TrEMBL record:
Keyword Plastid (UniProt): no
Domain SCP: 42-147
Database matches in Pfam families: CAP (PF00188)
Organism phylogeny: Bacteria, Bacillati, Actinomycetota, Actinomycetes, Propionibacteriales
Protein name: CAP domain-containing protein
Stretch forming the signal peptide: 1-29
Source organism: Desertihabitans brevis
InterPro entries found in the cross-reference section: CAP_dom, CAP_sf
Keywords: Signal
Keyword Signal included in the entry's annotation: yes
Amino acid sequence: MKSKTLARLASALVAGAASLTLLAPPAQAVTSTTYEADTIKYTNAERTKRSLGKVASNSCVDRYAERQAAAMAKAKRMYHQSLQPILSECRLSAVGENVAVGYTSGSSVVKAWMGSSGHRANILNSRYTRIGVGAVKGTDGRWYVAQVFGRGR
């Protein structure tokens, strides 16, 4: 009798645990869109902490960032693009770029850039008012990221 009661109790606990598992929310998959939005969000958070104005997403600058991220992913290596075409095409008076590979989220890539003097200088440059971010997951499973900053003429 005692073993039957224990068996029922064990079955009830297992069933209860299984139902709790089903109620757990699924893990949020990182997409290019969420990666890019988070990169802008955390970039602006760093600027705000220092009383700098936020940078606003700009379609022209964004197009160059996305192209660069895709090109790096295809080549499976990180490198900077020529910034001169961005100056003229997007009608900017100043432009800067940060690139990275291998970081799994927008927050982690911004944290890494903030630990590097040159990248940090771009993020905290008060002249920059525009931003574009491209993030592409390569066939090698790594994220390739380009962050382009600009200031209008």
